[in-house]
Amino acid sequence: MTGSLVIAGLGPGSEALITPEVTAALAQATDIVGYIPYVARVRAREGLVLHASDNRVELDRAAHALSLAAAERHVVVVSSGDPGVFAMAAAVFEALEAGPAHWHELSISVLPGITAMLAASARAGAPLGHDFCAINLSDNLKPWSLIERRLRLAVEADFAIALYNPRSKARPEGFAQTLSLLQEVCGDDRPVLFARAVSTPDEQLRILPLSEARPEMADMRTMVIVGSSSTRLIARASGPILYTPRSAMAGMA
Amino acid sequence: MTGSLVIAGLGPGSEALITPEVTAALAQATDIVGYIPYVARVRAREGLVLHASDNRVELDRAAHALSLAAAERHVVVVSSGDPGVFAMAAAVFEALEAGPAHWHELSISVLPGITAMLAASARAGAPLGHDFCAINLSDNLKPWSLIERRLRLAVEADFAIALYNPRSKARPEGFAQTLSLLQEVCGDDRPVLFARAVSTPDEQLRILPLSEARPEMADMRTMVIVGSSSTRLIARASGPILYTPRSAMAGMA
């Protein structure tokens, strides 16, 4: 078997944030597999077959990519951000486990990318400069009770909290519940970053206290970062800087 | 004032993992500021001044970079990985707050990079494919009691746990205590990844159950990732894949 499967991260949007390793993999591919808007980010060329599929069919897409690689194609599965963070890499490995035994010996590699929280954090300053966690608010794949439990423990641990997939049309109530919970346990002054479509022409940044955060400030292109108890704002004429100092006291948590 | 300060992430080691945005910033710089081994990764050229400093002088280094930018230089502060994750961005903002008022109006930007946990995760599979946290084990900047508290809450939340700076010659005991604590609360079978110097010629990967993990398996170039309760191994002739499925049950935490 001489096919191969590469699971590559395209970063948050800008070409300037795609690693040379990923660019080289795209140049060598025979087939690109992914969600429609991510496949659209790959430049079409003679002999490159684009397989774009809709959202919420991750396992089918992963199995398709594996079967193409088993048929000796050189396949790149594209994800936004980093493929290992709430993206296609885990889906491919789930499909691999469920599939035929010969898939196990395919050449498979994962190429990292700039995940949304790193891009958002960089634009705002350094809110993830101390210990932090990342929680996917999509409740397609886990119950709300587990999300709530993790949010409470994350606040108790005094992590800065990066919230992926905060809100979709199909389930707007989850993010409203998240904000209520955080407002209840963190107090009103905790700074929150809403970073939408970072590094694209649609980029929008908003930093405000938790008491002023509203569910409609986020959509599926928004990354939300909630500061820890020590996250600070530096006011400047050119716009605020949000950052979390490197040191912490025992009493802070 | 026409100087500028860019805080850039060089990724984990390989040039193929440096974003084009960072490469362009390095090409435009007049001055590079950073820890000796990171400055050594920047190609010297006519007119580029390299300011390499030793470890543990982050605030002095940050103030130096700000004063150069205030003197109309185009300064790039280089970090390994991502500058916003346990690296120089927070130090620069701490120095900015402590410094003269005119520093506040300097042009400052942060350019993200591939942080160590993403590079390590990609090499092993996708251990960060579900909710996770990142904890810096260096106790220079926080007391052990706080680290211990965060580790316990992270396990209770059932996060996969990325451990940065696990061990140095100056404080070998912290990582030994961390492993003991995790062995006590997670049980013996939890998979652990030791990923050393990922993407460099010194790269070494090791995946083993928590019961077999030993403090001396990590040094300051090692990223340690402890799986959640649902992190799985796929056995293959060509080496195991470590990944965390995308879905979780309420009872798992």
Question: What does the model show?
Answer:
The structure is a homodimer of 253-residue chains. Chain A is of the alpha/beta class. The first copy, chain A, is built from 7 helices and 13 strands. Chain A starts with a strand and ends in a 10-residue tail after the last strand. The interface between A and B is large, with 81 and 81 residues. Strand 7 of chain A pairs antiparallel with strand 7 of chain B.
Would you tell me the structural class of the helices and strands of chain A? alpha/beta
Oligomer: homodimer
Major sheet size, sense and barrel closure of chain A: 5 strands, parallel
Q: Percent range for helical residues of chain A? A: 25-40%
How many extended strands of chain A? Answer: 13
The topology string of helices and strands of chain A comes to EHEHEHEHEHEEHEHEEEEE
Distance separating the two termini of chain A: 53 Å
> What is the count of DSSP helices of chain A, taking H or I runs of 4+ residues?
7
Shape by Cα distribution of chain A: globular
Low-confidence stretches of chain A: none
Lateral strand order in the biggest sheet of chain A: 3-2-4-1-5
| C-alpha-based Rg of chain A, rounded | 20 Å
Most extensive interface: pair and counts?
Answer: A-B, 81 and 81 residues
Mean pLDDT of chain A: 94
